[in-house]
Design goal:
The protein is an alpha+beta fold. It is built from 18 helices and 14 strands. α15 runs antiparallel to α17.
């Protein structure tokens, strides 16, 4: 809280400087950009020094930089995107202590070699590269010893701070609601046995697929998870400098992952930010980090399928029937069908065209319209499973917009909506 408290003070000071320059007629485009750069640098410095929920929230919010005004989005994109790949790692002795406690004092005998320098540090853990005793290259994920206390020790304060942070960087988003759901889901990420089970489910579901690479779980015990090493190009690098062909390929595979995983794995990847994916030269996509995974109830409809059915409704009456059928409108609740259709019109554009080009403008306009339509949206009651899936869907769409990928979104969704592998059926009328 003490570290976060410097942010509003710094922002206020820079706003005062900007206001003074504007009053004097000296606020040029260059000076305004410099003020934003200073704010972004301070955000990264503070968030990057924190672990647990605050830093994780910064990672998620980095995907939504597209909702910022276009003239400043690149400034925040560069700083916030760094939160997806890096954090301040723990000291070597601290990591060794966790390994000794959970794997035993002779933990080094489990490895041919172990690199004490982490290759990645995230909000709740850091990753070390090593060679397992059978010769396989592996990634060793080690949870921070105080992760549980850091994350859950002051939940209400973190929600408050993250709500303020969202208003500063992306005022159109409901930061408090996002933070509350995020904190609930983050608690599950501390359970590495659960994560290992989800990772195995994804690996089994996509076994034999030439399009996806899911690393095998080599060992899991306590706060340590050992997986096969996955190389490839981080998706953040594709976003920064990838060719359009690479962007489109990554966008296609991310879309397929969203709609295929519920059917093939019974789960939905709940943290699809760019740091969790790698694009390979053969066009396949490496999928990492299965801590935030939503488990679907067998025999029930996927939240993403519900999303498609809502957005494919062509008349106000059909939309009302669908909303009631999927649990968005409770029995007896009256709603303005025409205004509800307007509410979903823009966000449903990808479902109404053979191919769709995802852009920051699309995400920005979607958020603007959803915010403007909030009074009519209050008649909706989001089903629990959809609330949990909203983070995955929202972040996934945000990444597609960062990629600026052209994707046959409708065909990929309908292929799974009908349970078919073949050509998609015509859009229902």
């Amino acid at each position: 809280m003490a570290r976060m408290s410097v942010l509003p003070l710094g922002a206020a000071q820079r706003a005062l400087v900007g206001g003074s320059l504007r009053a004097l007629g000296r606020l040029t485009d260059e000076s305004a950009l410099e003020l934003h750069e200073r704010t972004a640098d301070q955000l990264f410095e503070v968030l990057g020094s924190l672990k647990g929920g605050v830093m994780k929230f910064g990672q998620v919010l980095s995907v939504y930089e597209a909702v910022l005004p276009p003239e400043i989005s690149a400034v925040y994109r560069q700083r916030l995107a760094r939160l997806q790949e890096a954090a301040r790692p723990e000291a070597e002795a601290v990591v060794h202590g966790v390994l000794a406690e959970d794997l035993g004092a002779d933990w080094r005998t489990m490895f041919v070699s172990f690199d004490d320098e982490p290759v990645a540090a995230a909000s709740l853990a850091q990753v070390h590269r090593a060679v397992w005793r059978d010769g396989r290259e592996v990634a060793v994920k080690v949870q921070y010893p105080e992760a549980h206390a850091d994350l859950l020790g002051d939940r209400d304060s973190l929600v408050m701070v993250m709500g303020w942070f969202t208003r500063l960087v992306a005022p159109a988003l409901d930061g408090r609601a996002m933070a509350e759901d995020l904190m609930d889901r983050l608690a599950e990420e501390l359970d590495y046995a659960r994560e290992a089970e989800s990772q195995r489910a994804f690996r089994a579901g996509f076994a034999g697929s030439p399009e996806f690479r899911v690393p095998d779980v080599v060992w899991q015990q306590g706060r340590v998870l050992v997986s096969e090493w996955v190389g490839g190009t981080p998706l953040s690098a594709v976003i920064a400098s990838g060719s359009q062909e690479e962007r489109d390929r990554a966008g296609l595979l991310l879309t397929r992952l969203m709609f295929d995983a519920p059917v093939l794995c019974g789960r939905l990847h709940g943290d699809p930010h760019p740091g969790n994916f790698r694009l390979f030269d053969d066009g396949s996509l490496g999928v990492l980090d299965f801590g935030a995974v939503y488990r679907l109830t067998p025999g029930t409809e996927s939240p993403l399928h519900k999303w498609m059915r809502i957005h494919l409704a062509e008349t106000p009456d059909e939309l009302l029937r669908t909303l009631r059928d999927v649990g968005f409108l409770r029995p007896g609740v009256r709603a303005d069908a025409a205004r509800l259709q307007e509410l979903f019109a823009h966000s449903g554009l990808p479902a109404h065209s053979e191919t769709f080009v995802f852009t920051p403008d699309h995400l920005r306009e979607t958020v603007r319209r959803m915010t403007a339509s909030m009074p009519v949206a209050l008649s909706l009651a989001f089903p629990p499973d959809f609330v949990h899936a909203q983070r995955s869907l929202g972040v996934g769409i945000g990444v597609l917009c960062q990629l600026e990928a052209e994707v046959p979104f409708q065909a990929e969704a309908l292929r799974r909506l009908t349970g078919e592998w073949g050509p998609p059926r015509p859009r229902p009328r």
